[in-house]
Amino acid sequence: MATGDAMTPFLAVLLYLGLSVDVWIQVLAGALSKPTLRAVPSNVVATGSQVTLFCEGPSEAKEYYLYKEGSEDYLMPTTILKTENKATFSVSSVQWNNAGQYTCEYKSSTGTSERSDNLELVVTGVHSSNITLSALPHMVVTSGDNVTLKCVSEWAYDVFILMKEDEKFSRHLPSQNIHPEYLGLFGALFTVGPVNPSQRWRFTCYGYYMSTPQLWSVPSNNLELLVSGKLQKPNIWAQPGSVISSGSSVTIWCEGVLKSGIRGPAHASVQTLTGNSLAGLSLGLRNSVLAGDLSKPTLRVVPRNVVTTGDQVTFFCEGPLQAKEYILYKEGRSDYLITTLPETRNKAKFPISSVGWNDAGRYWCNYKVTNDRSAKSDLLELVVTGVYPSKLKLSALPSTVVKSGANVSLQCVSRQAYTWLILMKEDEKFSRPLATQNIYPDLFGAQFTVGPMTPNQRWSFTCYGYYWTSSQLWSVPSNHLELLVPAPAPETQSDHTVENLLRMGMASLVLIILGILVFESCHGSRHVQHANGMGMGDTVMHPM
After folding, report:
1. How far apart (Å, rounded) are the C-alpha atoms in residues 355 and 363?
2. Of all helices (H) and strands (E), which one includes residue 470?
């Protein structure tokens, strides 16, 4: 017990010294200010971009260290200070493995600082599925109102996030199957507002998985909201009237309200109102009312109007030589889609480098000549296949071998209950769509009648399924089925020659046999006559 009692003060001293040293180290570390870590141009960067991390500390810092969460040792030490209190860590081409949480620290002659706050580096473009951002009900919003933004993708990301001017605008929202009838369209709805006209409202959205929150998808399309004010509606009228004869002049007036609330005087030929609130547009003989005088353009798509997701297509709008500008529209959008100058003297092209499900729909185009617009082209339907992954099977009943002139039944079957099934021949629509029927337990399908068959063309088919709510979004294609139509055996000249030779041979044989019979018959008659002649002679020569 004496020994234990003697050791107690010694242990207490050691413990005190240990605690003192620890406290002293903490005091020294606390005396050094915490550095600041930031990323330029942003902490959200696309794959392949350059990013620079800046670690800023006091002027007495001698060396900086950058750390990444999950790495046991530091990443990039540096003693080269770009300024008196800053060090840079550059990544020339960001890749997915650069994403993560970063911190930094510095060393001085008095010790090592504590680490900076975490900086999250997000890398976008890791997941390639297209994302679409749209505004509900419309991208034009009244000042002070809220608007709903819908972010939709074909991939079932765990969460979606909304960005405003490349900065995080909202917390992430969980992905939901917001279009159950589409079988594989997932998204989230973000509420934005109240909006006001004093700032820009430009958005994109991304998707990612919770297991890798710093690895984001490619961005959606840019969506910019237009904020309208609370001013009264303008008045519009035509002078001398809204009904005019062809070739007459007409002036269309638009009257608004000044800030003072007093209606201003007329001001002709001013289209953008600045000080005056009444504008007159004199149209003369080239009035847009007479747009029917301009020929209707032609719209076509290359390589075809039924394409697979990811394919490239190009729209061509063709008009007259005097066309100055071409505009492409899509049904369901109130604004124009694309506008471009003519590629040649009478044609403009509108390419889509990688078709997504949201590109499906009906399109038309028109063109401008000075201030006049032509009538719309005929509608062109763009169908996107591969949207629904459920496989289909196409078979021939009773067989893929069909006699020339006969009909055959083709049966298209799927486990998915599509509303319609359609048959394609050589990538072209071959038949009207047929409603699906429950032809077997858990199997849905339709039967198409094909024929009469001829051997002088190719009979290669596929079938697709789709829903009535989205008639331009089709499934993956079925297997290719090619029918075989044997041609009837042709009669050749050689066959006729053989037949003629056989006939001639048979005729010759018959003639030979007949000749032999005639010869034998004649020869036999002579022998009889000779025998008879000899008998009579004998009788005469020998007297009795």
Report:
1. 14
2. strand 470-475
